[in-house]
Amino acid sequence: MKVFTSEELEQKWDGFSKIFQHYNECSTAPVAFLLITSLGITSQFGSAQNSCKSILEVACGPGAGTKLCLQYKNDSSKFISTDISNEMIQLTKQCLGMTNNGDGGDEIPEKNFKIQQCNAEKLPFPDNSFDRYFSNYCLHLVTSPETMLKEAYRVLEVGGIAAFSVWGRPENSNQFTIVKKIADEIGIDMSSQERSSFHLNDTTKLRQMALDAGFSRVLAGHSFVNSPIQNGEEYSEVFLSPPGLQKFIQTLDKEKYLLWKSKIVNHVDELLNKGEFIGSEVSYIICTK
Questions:
Q1: I need a labelling partner for 47 at 20 to 30 A (CA). Which of 67, 104, 243, 275 fits?
Q2: Edge-to-edge strand list for the sheet holding 156-167
Q3: Which residues span the domain enclosing 81?
Q4: Which DSSP helix (H) or strand (E) runs through 114?
């Protein structure tokens, strides 16, 4: 089973960053809001918001979650956003208007904000540096989720809270399974030796992994996020676009590919016409040190 190294992940996301931003980021923003809400950053109850002194975001992607967090956090709270991909860092800076200030810097001083490139499995921060941590759709992608969880635990102070999201159960995530479902039906072999992105969807096991990393309390659950896709053509444009899949498509007979695509389009249109969402389940954990 192939598991990507950190270097391979960096290269992959550098190459996929703009495609992801264009097609996929809109589906990740609601989950980012779920995570930062679970950290108490948006809360007006008690002292939850005021007690948040420092926030770390790991795997900011093109910046949707970063922008939300900046909107809700206190300006006095330190906020550092990170990603393994420099291209994602640049997209986040564009999202925040940081490329329009002339100096191309990595900080917004008035927001107590900084952005930097780093590896989720080897964070460049001292122990007990933050009291909030969130990572949206990253834990299932890294080489070692156990290492990432331990690093999150290490950089959090006692009482700190971390929030993670991963792909949920495939049977509840049609947006990620339709392509292969139709391929199987018409005899296109999409079997892969790569580790499945669904490998952490069992919340019982995911919760235990976080407890094993040292967290004292871990809440685990599922939610559903519908895609804004309105028809089958939009779906095929989005989910046949990843670079790895494009390379695979180039190996297919053209007529076979066109049949595959047409059946995908028709299947999605049929689901939508029946009133069913195209979307995915998210599994997530909220962990207290």
A1: 67
A2: 107-108, 113-117, 78-83, 54-58, 130-135, 156-167, 279-288, 217-226
A3: 6-288
A4: strand 113-117
**pTM, rounded to two decimals:** 0.92
CA-closest candidate to residue 39, choices 55, 25, 26 = 55
Within a domain: residue 1?
no
Per-residue pLDDT of the chain (289 residues; tens, 9 = 90+): 678 788 888 787 777 677 777 667 778 899 999 999 999 887 655 454 457 899 999 999 999 999 999 999 988 899 999 999 999 999 999 999 997 655 558 999 999 999 999 999 999 999 999 999 999 999 999 999 999 999 999 999 999 999 999 999 999 999 999 999 999 999 999 988 789 999 999 999 999 999 999 999 999 999 999 998 899 999 999 899 888 899 899 999 999 999 999 999 999 999 999 999 999 999 999 999 9
